[in-house]
Amino acid sequence: MTGSDATPSFRLAYVPGVMPDKWVRIWNERQPDVPLTLTQVPAGAAAERLLGGEADAGLVRTPVDREVFSAIPLYTEQTVVVVPKDHLVTAVDEVAPEDLADDIVLHPLDDVLDWESLPGRPALERPATTADAIELVAAGIGVLAVPLSLARLHHRKDLTHRPLRDAPESSVALAWPEAAKTDRIEDFIGIVRGRTVNSTRGRQQPPAQEKPKRPQKDGAGRKPMGTKQRRGSGGTTKGTKRNSGKPRRRS
User: Fold this and answer.
1) DSSP β-bridge partners for residue 39
2) Which residues contact 143 (CB under 8 A, 6 or more apart)?
3) For residue range 152-173, what is the model confidence (pLDDT) as tens digits?
């Protein structure tokens, strides 16, 4: 690991929908002298920002180029469909792709879902961003499939969402350039993996020093030669006869 002292802070990029607050709070508790700088970046620009040195690590959406980046998968999100509150699918708890056959399903250019075949009917044009697509859904022009965190991020009172089964899912990972791992990245890895502050995993710990042996005094620890006699009750040696004090009778 190199470069642990190159910057005075730890710079963390994150994509929309990811909520790093808990990890940032733990970092501030454990590393009060190393401020953590947060920067939100578009999902499609995260790799470029990391390779350009604008951040030390990033909370990104997979897949990532494993020839260039190291990555630790964190979690996978549920996919939902965002619809107006008066849409027919709000009558059910879960939506199937075939339930959207008559709907225009919007497909923004910054979509993070890897569709083989988008359900429903395609729109004439693709919205530039997920935020633009949300506006179109609110206008009654179509519906939108997104990870749950993005549905919550773009929440509106006139919209709601339902789980969409049999749809691609989006996963989030902690990633950093393969050649740029630092002690601070290792510290943050420990936080997202739930390690305690005293965990020996992560950074290499210094070898434990062997305790010096206490010198023995002369004769200490030596076993007495010969057979050790066992004493019975009364302080006499076991196996010997007590003298009753009476004279023996001669035959």
Assistant:
1) 13
2) 81, 82, 83, 87, 100, 103, 104, 105, 106, 120, 137
3) 999 999 999 999 999 999 999 9
